[in-house]
Amino acid sequence: MIHHLRAAGVDFILDARGTAAPVVVHWGRALGDLDAAALTALADATAPAVAPSSIDRPFRVGVVPLLTDGWTGRPAVEISPPSPVLDHVDTVRDGDALVTTIALGDARIQLRHTLTPRGVLLVDRQLTNTGTDAIEVRALAALLPVPTRAREILDFTGRWAGEREPQRSRPGHGVWARDTRHGRGGHDDPFLFTVGTPGFGFRHGEVWATHVAWSGDRSVWFERGDMGLSVVGAGERLDGLVLAPGETHQAPTVVATWSDAGLDGLSSRLHPWVRSWATPRGPRPVTLNTWEAVYFDQSLERLTPLVDAAARVGAERLVLDDGWFHGRTDDRRALGDWTVDERVWPDGLGPLISRVNGDGLEFGLWVEPEMVSADSDLARAHPEWMLTPADAVSWRFQHVLDLEHPDAWQHIFDRLDALLTEYPIAALKWDHNRDLLVPHTGGQVRALYRLLDALRAAHPGVEIESCASGGARIDLGILRRVDRFWTSDTNDPLARQRIQRWTGILIPPEFLGSHVGDERAHTTGRTASLAFRMTTALFLHAGIESDISRLDDAQLAALAGWTALYRTHRALLHGGTTVRVDDADPALLQHGVVAPDRGEGLFAYVALDRFDAALPSPIVLPGLDPQRRYRVRVLDVGAPVRTIQDADPAWLVAGGTVLPGSVLAEGVLAAPLLAPGEALLIHVTAD
Q1: CATH code of the region 579-686
Q2: Which residues contact 246 (CB under 8 A, 6 or more apart)?
Q3: pLDDT tens digits, residue range 383-432?
Q4: What's the whole-model pTM score?
Q5: Which of the following is catalytic: 431, 435, 483, 518?
Q6: Which residue is catalytic, options 489, 492, 518, 547?
Q7: Domain range 2-80+92-271, CATH architecture
């Protein structure tokens, strides 16, 4: 039978006739109403010619292609001992999903292809050992065909404080593969692996993207074989996974998305789908984090002025970062000893929390439960709980706690449960500051998931922010268990503009934290105006990370105005459609968010450096209703924006303008000549 899934302008057609592995006939643009006869004709029409010096039948790539079928490319499923025989047991429809069962020797494989109402394709794989001997699973990935016109790859690399750096390539024949081996995604995580028509951008081009919803090692690849067939593969990177008789391995979900409207088209599918299952509990509170404000210099006397200043500027949550627990005087010791340090906090955290709550703020607390210091009471009492010996290579002077050890897992749960029971903690900032650096099979990640799930069940009102040396573990697997990501450890707005732009393709803005830091960024030493820092943080889950108790009245007033602006536009920022502009000038970034009914939009015109001409490129406002007229005006973010010009464009001098959405999308608005490191905040409303 030939199965046809349809949703939101996307078709997924699977030819499941016969005993061979089913074949994906089409994944992409909707093909219209196709009856059974048309589906049969389509499937038959896609069967290729038989090439000289090849197998003696038309070769098509099945969902589990085998070497014995003629597939000489990278295997999606690989087991040992191998089996040359595959039997397609059946494919049945289950609502919006197609469930295929395949027997491969002693391995029984179930594949589930689900097309969500937003047109996002989910590929799940499960493998069970049905034999009497153990088998080794070396690969259990998803494989999807893409047309030959998809010849350009976009994926990501990066480093600490410089995550999600895009890289493009146009490979020829062969395999372009990215494997991660960090035990987490890593700062160089490929993140969202996208192939498309050459030159695709944010607003144009046809693209096919995959993401492995998993917080451990991953494999993604693109392959173009000698027959000219192209596929993308994605899955968990397995490292010696052995299944005993009767055991089952459930592979992480692969999220696949198609768009004929460029990268923004991907976001327009992914963001609503993510919001359908990961909706935060309430409006995203303005968060003040203490890390860059005080580092390890903690005391009630030191923090009280900061708490009061946070309340004065309109912060809604204060998170006490690293340094509060027993013996933690620096980053070389005490991880794992999750009790309040009686020397720093002789009366516990109660007095600080009372001050925070009394000023009208929620209280949050930093933890790093997956890690342990060699110099800690925990390591001395239970060295067997460490994933590596104390004399093994350390990273940031710390080691990994073996969460697969049931006693270690229970100890960490009990300590966190006790803290959350004793104190009114509204949120945890959950950090993970090193790679694993040991061979593993994903058990550490699954133990982490169980720990997060158990804590959320025991304390359903507590929100969790996921941090991993900044943005080294941002994925849709852990997002099912957390409420916020710390996007990057850098608060430098110039670096942040790029990091946030690319991270936001996959992750909706309300799940990404962005803070106003000090004038001189701690990670780069660059200085930035208050206006630029505030505009950069405004578009995500906004916060502050600076000792604002030392600011003057004017600066505090500016921050208060900015938090008020954030609260005014929070529903738009966190519920709208993200839009971005493809700019020829590398010094310019333009982005924004448009309300679902397209009645309102908020945009940023950002100067990263000197423009490449005496006059800058015009302002482009995409995503609006082309038939409606909009009133356009510049918003005061709360602090002056520097320009290098003799006069503003006429429409700015007039206080705004009114134009149709069709015109605004064409880039007719003259832009002011912003100084490098400044941004213009533009608000549009339907007239």
Answers
A1: 2.60.40.1180
A2: 128, 129, 130
A3: 999 998 889 999 999 999 999 999 999 999 999 999 999 999 999 999 99
A4: 0.98
A5: 431
A6: 489
A7: Distorted Sandwich (2.70)
